[in-house]
Amino acid sequence: MMKKVWVLFLCAAGCCCAQQPAFWNGRDGLLRGVAVGNDVWSLKAEANPAQNSLADYVRMRELGMNVARFYLSYRFFEDDAAPYAYKQSGWDFLNQNLEWAKANGITFILNMHVPQGGFQSNAEGGALWDVLANQKRLIALWREIARRYANEPAIVAYDLVNEPVVTKDKSQWQRLAQQLVDAIREVDANHLIFVERINGITPGNYANDAEMNFVFINDPANKWGLTFHFYSPIAYTHQYAPWVPGFKNTDGGKYPDPALPQFESEVWKGATFANPTAPKGDSDWAFYEGTWKTVADLSEGNIGRPALEFGGLGGGTVWFDRLVFEKRSPGGEVSTIATYHLKAGAGGWYFWTEKPGGRIIEKEDAIGFTGTVAGANYGASAFTVLEQGWSYRVSGRMKGESLPAAAVCRVRFDWNLARNIRTRDKAALEQEVLSYLNLAREKNLPVYLGEFGVIKHTLTQEKGGAVWVADMFDILKTHGVSFTYHAWVDYWFGVKGNAEMEQVFQALLRP
Questions:
Q1: Do the Cβ atoms of 66 and 33 come closer than 8 Å?
Q2: Would the pLDDT of 410 be above 60?
């Protein structure tokens, strides 16, 4: 099938060919490549022509790639001040890159990385879901893209929205995805359309449901499939990532590491809300001993971690500086799991708030919180696997400044129910990848891995980033999955100019 595609590209470039162009169906012929980011994260009003050149696509070909996931921003094509008035500069940028790609046997998957309403991945694009005008503009833009490229086989698929994060529930994405497919099919019955799973539900709910957060649509052309992203375990692939809360100063360990457990997903189940709270008003430093939680049934929670609670602070401030996480055997023997010294740069914690507002104050000997107006907490990313019949507690030091009567400030032990706890190795990666693949194949739908990768800090011999990538490549080859690695040009994850990563690609992709 892929040999036919390369011939078709030559025909599209100008040879005489009466044959109807063949379009990729998502099953015949594996696509293996990289994302071309186009500097979409800068949210500039114009595409950056300096991002890519003919030489980039030449190098991709040399490394054995045959596809690029081409990131788009709506800003390339229209301005918020002039909706539906499409800019020629955006089409020119796309066409130039497509020409360079075709000359080197590189196909494109067009991905709307920044839709009207905002970049989705970090839950900053709620306006896509809450402002109907943004949805209408996105639908119109995809229809125009499809109209212009309906007969272009070098574009093998459309990827509708990158990592959607909805504001209420996944039905919001199901409805919009269906509208996008309907609009595309008005003008283009040729191209495969990929529908991503929702990345999460605001605020902060990134758990998977029984269908792995996928949504399902009706396509009159019957040419659609599912796509997912894979950065597991996130604490490893994103260690030291400054945009991930709590990761900026956190070492995420190595790969493989049989001694380090990981899991597929988790659901919060409970916490020790009976732990003592800081008094109202002003108080000095004091050590507050937590209550014990006995694990009677692992089906109600199989992992646990410390957390800080500081709801309803308003203008008050609460400070924490030392936590002790302990366990007690059924025979009564107490031992320490971990001690946490909370201070500036400690890392490894997640900030959550029920309503917007609140900020962290970091000092060299303590960490403080202020400004929250509703429920809020700060949870550790590190966890311990719980044992049935054992008891757990978290104790720690606190002090308050002008705490209002409505404030609730305490240290807690939180327990969650995690799916598929396993060790950090290739078998664990494969098991998690299969949770996505199996669902797609049960539905008889094509499936494609749109993003995966490791941050540059893992690309040292002791960290094993290249081993992680090699294991992923082997898993995807074994199961016949097309993929695009994130990304070609990127300070944190980039392949271009990274000699070690380029060598990995060449060794794994070249015949």
A1: yes
A2: yes
DSSP 427-465: HHHHHHHHHHHHHHHHTT--EEEEEE---GGG-STTTTH
Give the separation between CA 130 and CA 167, rounded to whole angstroms: 8
**Stated pTM of the model:** 0.82
- Residue 334 bridge partners (DSSP): 328
- 146-184: pLDDT as tens digits: 999 999 999 999 999 999 999 999 999 999 999 999 999
Beta strands 67-73; 107-114: pairing state = parallel
439 Rama class: left (phi>0) / alpha (psi -120 to 50) / beta:
alpha
Please state, in angstroms and rounded to a whole number, the distance separating the CA atoms of residues 405 and 482.
56
Strands (E), 174-295: 192-196, 200-201, 224-230, 257-262, 265-271, 286-288, 293-294
Q: What is the rounded distance in angstroms from the CA atom of residue 56 to the CA atom of residue 489? A: 10
Q: If you write DSSP's letter for every residue of 208-229 in order, what string do you get?
A: --TTTT------TT--EEEEEE
CA torsion sign, 387 to 388 to 394 to 395?
A: negative
Query: Which amino acid appears at position 115 of this protein?
Result: P
Architecture label for domain 2-224+481-509: Alpha-Beta Barrel (3.20)
Measured CA to CA, the distance from residue 240 to residue 260 in angstroms comes to 18
Average pLDDT over residues 437-446: 96
Closest C-alpha among 184, 263, 195 to residue 435: 263
Helix (H) and strand (E) counts for the chain? 10, 25
Q: Is 347 left (phi over 0), alpha (psi -120 to 50) or beta?
A: left
The ranges assigned to domains in the chain are 2-224+481-509, 265-419
Torsion of CA 128, 134, 139, 142, to 10 degrees: -80
Q: How far is CA 38 from CA 7, 216, 237, in A?
A: 28, 29, 22
In this structure, is the dihedral angle defined by the CA atoms of residues 351, 196, 267 and 383, taken in order, positive or negative? negative
At position 511, the amino acid (one-letter code) is P
- Of the candidates 454, 510, 508, 494, the residue with the CA atom closest to the CA atom of residue 35: 494
3-state SS class at 179: helix
CA distance 308 to 306: 7
Give the least confident one: 115-129, 393-407, 444-458.
115-129
Q: Which DSSP helix (H) or strand (E) runs through 110?
A: strand 107-114
Write the DSSP symbol of residue 488: S
CA distances from 495 to 111, 480, 490, 498 (A): 19, 23, 8, 5
Cis peptide before 203 (omega within 30 of 0): yes
Q: What angle do CA 96, 101, 107 make, to 5 degrees?
A: 120
